[in-house]
Structure formats: structure tokens, C-alpha cells
């Protein structure tokens, strides 16, 4: 009789272990399911809306819900992210982020890299850089990083000379030679695409030109040909960000490897005008 009781006790104990394991498994699965179903919120600017939506649609098929919040300027996405109102943003490259952190004292960091775009010098009035007249009006971005990038390209075009030819943070005061006495018109970076209609020459970006529909991005008088990955657009997060359930990493993997996203990049920026930054 005592032996039978002992065996029954062992059976009960074994069943108890199984039940605990099942409960633990169900709890872990529920946590995973909640993490997957929780909305991933990413701040973007209009230039990246279509391609990120393609990635979000692909993510949805894999059970990952992604909400894209669109901002019209290059300041609010970092302010909003720093406040913790969104999970990540996607609109800036590393030099821009470095400057934003310095100026805004933001607690932000890069999470992963997206695509990088070539940049160019565009004109609807002239068919060559040599044809530019004296005192030609030239549109350049007004933020320190992209203005520096524009000036480096103008130097490559031999239209100006900079005090430090390699300084990517050069500004208008760093121009030491300007043979054509070019007149610079500073404006928000995205607006240079629309300025092509009004100025003699504009530094701009293929994706913004496609949005503005002002000129074919492939018709640049000069394109930068160097694949500089520091200008890849980044997925940026707060320094204390915890990637619950690997949701953001999963979305990044979709962005970087999905054929649908690649097709969208070709359509939005232009085949040959973008390159992988990862």
C-alpha cells in the first residue's frame, strides 16, 4: 500500500512539473506575442514615406505592426524621439545626427543603417557648369552638415575653393576662392529641390527632386560618385531604447533585404542613385 502511495506522489509531482512548464511556456509565448503585436512607431520625413510604407506592409505580413509618423522638417523628428513619443526615426545620416546631438543635447544613438543617396548639382537654365554666368545664384541647404556637403561638391566642380578642402562642416565663410562670384541662397535642405525652378544652380538630392518633380535626378551637371556610407540614412533611437521582442531589428532586416523595398528605392530615388549603407 505504501509503495502505491509513493508512486502516486511521484506521478503527481511529475504532472506538476509539466503543468508549471506549460504555464511558463504559455507566459513566454504571450509575452512574445504581445511584443510582436505592439505597434512600432517610427518618425520619418516625406522623402522616405513610400519606401518605409513598403517595408511596413512587408512587416505586417510577418505579424509586425509598424506605424509611420510623418514630419515636414528636419528638427521635429529628433525632438519627438528624444521626448520618447516615438520608438525610432529615419531621416538623417551620421554627420547630421552628430551635429543634432551637439546642438540639441539629445540622448540619441544610431541603431542601424539604411540606404544612402548620391547628391548632385542641378540647373534648368544651363547645360554645363562652364556655362554658369558670373554672380549665378546657387541654392544650398542652410544646416551646417548639408551645407558643408554642398560646398564640397561645388569645390569638386572647381567652382569654389575651401580653406580646408576636406572639412565636411565647411560653411560660406570658409570659401577662400569664388572666381565666378557665385551668390549663395541658403534654405531648408528639402526646399533646394523646388528652388531648381528659380535659381541658376541648386545642390539637391534625387529623392527630393522626385517628390518635387522639378527635374530628372539623373540630369545632374555633376553627381558625387563616391559611395560614402557615413551619409547613409539611419534608424535612430534613444540611448535607453530597449528593442522589445527584437521588433525594430526585424523591421531593419526587412528594409535591408526585402526585394520589394529595393524596388521601391529604385523607383523613389533612382537606380544607380542610391547604395546600401549597411
UniProtKB/TrEMBL annotation:
SUPFAM superfamilies: Periplasmic binding protein-like II. Keywords: Lipoprotein, Membrane, Palmitate, Signal, Transmembrane, Transmembrane helix. It is found in: Membrane. Signal peptide: none annotated. Coiled coil: none annotated. GO terms for cellular component: membrane. The chain crosses the membrane at residues 12-29. It holds the Pfam family Lipoprotein_9. Belongs to the NlpA lipoprotein family. This is Methionine transporter. It comes from Acinetobacter brisouii CIP 110357.
